[in-house]
Amino acid sequence: MPTTFGFAFSQSSVDVYDHYSDKFSKSELEFARKYPDYFTLNPESIKVTLYEVVEEKDTSYIKEPKEDPKDQDPFVIIDQIINIASKIWAIVEKNKPVVDIDTKYATAVPEGISAWTQLSEWKKPKTYIYGFYAENLYGSVMIDLKYKVTFTYGGKYKGKGLYLTGVTVVPTTVSVGWGYRLGISAFAPDSTIANVGTHESPVASMQLKLTWKISTPIKEQNGTSVYYIEGNGYFEEIASPFKEEADAEKKERISGYIKDAVKEWRKHNE
Description:
The protein has 270 residues and is an alpha+beta fold. The protein has helices at residues 16-19, 26-34, 240-269, and strands spanning 3-6, 10-13, 47-55, 77-82, 88-93, 96-97, 106-111, 126-135, 141-157, 160-176, 181-187, 194-195, 204-215, 219-230, 235-237. The protein has one domain. It contains three helices and 15 strands. Strand 12 and strand 13 (204-215) form a beta hairpin. The chain is elongated and about 75 Å long.
């Protein structure tokens, strides 16, 4: 069964003609003046859904180094874990998947390693397939996206440690409504890469952050999904603050309804 998470964005309203005139056509700007609700997402409709978890056949999705360093004997510190690949990269730009996305990924490997192929005993990659969905205030679907969070785990250096490579996000389908602009980027902060094992038996861990930006002629909305991954194959979505914000908004609305109902009751019964 798909798992659905509530999702909320920070929003900022802008003057239609001031801020976005360089990003949107004249017809989009004119339409926004007449029908602002078309360009306003319904917060309760915004959802990130986990559809399934699958095991990939091999690591062919990871770009191999041009020079094979397997025969090198570097000075390696197995309990000091670093990312030797990409730190930040675009996934979706101008409503379209980035063409060279398969060459971008993060790693969590021991310091001194120059390529992930210097490690061995890698497990088959895991893929978590997600959907991102959002409607406007008219109930029309404006964002319908599917993407894969994929990583390869369990790599060892001379029989020691559990490390990560090929940590990436790949969009599979992107559908964006007229007048909307979608951009998504991935970020693997060095500050989140750590050893959650011991000095003798290290276990790499890292966080992969997805930054979302949805723009219309009248609003810009930003949000972040965060995924925590370990070298033993453990995976967790930890973007809980968004769900808490959505729940807080819902509680505030319900509280308002209750107050109005109490006022109405007192008016007729006191």
